[in-house]
Amino acid sequence: MHRKTVFENGLRVITQEIPSTSAVTVLVLAGAGSRYETKEINGISHFLEHMFFKGAKKYPDAKSVSAAIDAVGGDFNAFTGKEYAGYYVKVAEKNKNTALDVLSDMLLYSKFDNTEIDKERRVILEEYNMYQDTPMYQVGWDFEKLLFGDQPLGWDQVGSKEFILNAHHEDFSNYKNSLYSADNIVVVISGKVDHDKIIPDIEKYFAFNNSKKDFEYKKYKISENTNNVLVQNKSTEQGHLVLGFPAYSEQHADHYALKVLSVILGGNMSSRMFSAIREKKGLTYYIHTSTDDYQDIGVISTNAGVDVKRIEEAVSSIIHEYALIKKEGVPEDELKKAKDFIKGKMTLRLEDSEEFAHLLGKQELLHNKIRTPSEIMKEIDKVTKEDILRICRDLFVQEKMKLAVIGPFGNGENLKNLMEVKF
């Protein structure tokens, strides 16, 4: 069972003991994702993630940061999402103070040296170029742009080239001081951990001066973009597409039913999309249906790598699967398999202390409330075939359907015509 302590400054600490492991993950989550950006600083959340590893007080440069973790055989990494950023170190339990020391030093005392900024901007520009040259990634961002429009949810997390080229010390210092505050951070320790013993260490290492974040992100607004197709005409050997619909937020009553639906449609190798479109028709190399879940909006979409000569057949086939499940629903045995798949995958993932820490930390940071794995599984079990049919009929509306495509498809007029078919 997890335990929670809240310090006077608002910092939340969650621990989860996992008896079967001798390792521990220290994960720090901050409500400082790309939704908090404006156009002028689009990309700062991700750039800042990089800069935290470039030197602080005790560990003055990137080499000393990595050397400290390497010396104990640990793993460390970071990530930036739309709504939060995360930093973690995974080590043997006896080295947990090294993890606390490194993470707290970078998050409290990073220097944001302009020389290091100049070096890292070149790295991030190469990352930007990599995504531009990798259509299976870029098409997902094109889909978000099409669905969400010109607001932070619709912008690339890597950011704009203009900001990457012009970012300087004050940008990072101001952003960090605004959002990396005690009340906007959750520290999660998962694995071989004793809550009572580690709390004094957390209090010592994570002595944040600023206890209140300065601002909230702007809530999602329905996009005024009426286009339902976005084609990036590019000479590629394979076409890449994302086709989907706006859906429910993470806090919606049908959140878990939507998860089950995505598995039925395209969540594994026995799913409908995979069986009908890849196995029977040979139209795609990869195909997958998934959800993206935010606090005030969600998405359900299918992404696929497609034979460029059969792009229209592939799009029509994907639409057909959405239309079919909306019309007929699902039988009980198919529903049960999807629910068992989700629960089984969750069990496997939570053997990893980092995955467990992420599950708990995200819920605490965004919702100030944690559902345990067993509680989540109970919610999955509650989903009925009537729920699936109801949400299909609610969400799969032709007028709301969006399609983003990258490949040698000209202006995509034929694809636009396919999207006009009522179902």
Give structural notes.
The mean pLDDT is 96. The chain folds into two domains: 3-205, Cytochrome Bc1 Complex, Chain A, domain 1 (2-Layer Sandwich), CATH 3.30.830.10; 229-418, Cytochrome Bc1 Complex, Chain A, domain 1, CATH 3.30.830.10. A hairpin with a 4-residue loop joins strand 9 and strand 10 (298-306). It has 16 helices and eleven strands. The strands form two sheets. It has a six-stranded mixed sheet, with helices on both faces. Strands 7-11-8-10-9 form a five-stranded mixed sheet, sandwiched between helices. The chain has 423 residues and is of the alpha+beta class.
Keywords summarizing the entry:
single chain, 423 residues, alpha+beta, Cytochrome Bc1 Complex, Chain A, domain 1, 2 domains, six-stranded mixed β-sheet, 16 helices
What's the gist of this structure?
The protein is of the alpha+beta class and 423 residues long. The protein has 16 helices and eleven strands.
Task: Summarize the helices and strands and which ones pair or pack.
Elements: E1 3-6, E2 12-17, E3 23-30, H1 44-51, H2 62-70, E4 75-80, E5 85-92, H3 96-109, H4 114-132, H5 135-148, H6 161-166, H7 169-179, E6 185-191, H8 195-205, E7 229-233, E8 239-247, H9 255-266, H10 272-279, E9 284-293, E10 298-306, H11 311-328, H12 332-349, H13 353-367, H14 373-382, H15 385-395, E11 402-407, H16 413-418
Parallel strand pairs: 2-6, 7-11
Antiparallel strand pairs: 1-2, 3-5, 3-6, 4-5, 8-10, 8-11, 9-10
